[in-house]
Amino acid sequence: MRELNTLFGNAFGEPEAYTAEPPSDAYLEGLLAKEHVIALVAMMKREVLGGLVAYELDKFERMRREFYIYDLAVAPEHRRRGVATSLIHHLREIAARRGAWVVYVQADYGDYPAIALYEKLRARDDVLHFDIAVAPDRH
Q: For the chain, which domains are there?
């Protein structure tokens, strides 16, 4: 998980956000033990090629679930080899076994490789994303 966080930080251009204050082993073990938290890693030998973190969300409007891909990245030297697609397909298998109706993900405007990947897998919805601060004075 620590190697995956390093990969995420580098891929997203936010190394400080992913590695500056690493969680304890106990925290990571507790998080990974939760059934609704999915962490998948693609490896070759002992090298992390890519990975994703997704969350299973139970819905109130119907007896169904959906999966949200929160982070997905592949190391630059392993891109365009089907790693991300394979990770998503594996998540879809998990989601199907758990009775989910959809897997969804967001992409930033201008992130053309991610947008192309997601569009080849399914239809696109244009939505707005808002970060609402927990503390009123935080921006």
A: 37-121 (3.40.630.30)
Give, as one character, the DSSP assignment of residue 134: S
Encode burial over 91-109: b for 16+ CB neighbours within 10 A, e otherwise.
Answer: beeebeeeebeebebebee
pLDDT in single tens digits along all 139 residues of the chain? 999 999 999 999 999 999 999 999 999 999 999 999 999 999 999 999 999 999 999 999 988 899 999 999 999 999 999 999 999 999 999 999 999 999 998 887 888 788 788 888 877 777 777 777 787 775 5
Full-model pTM: 0.85
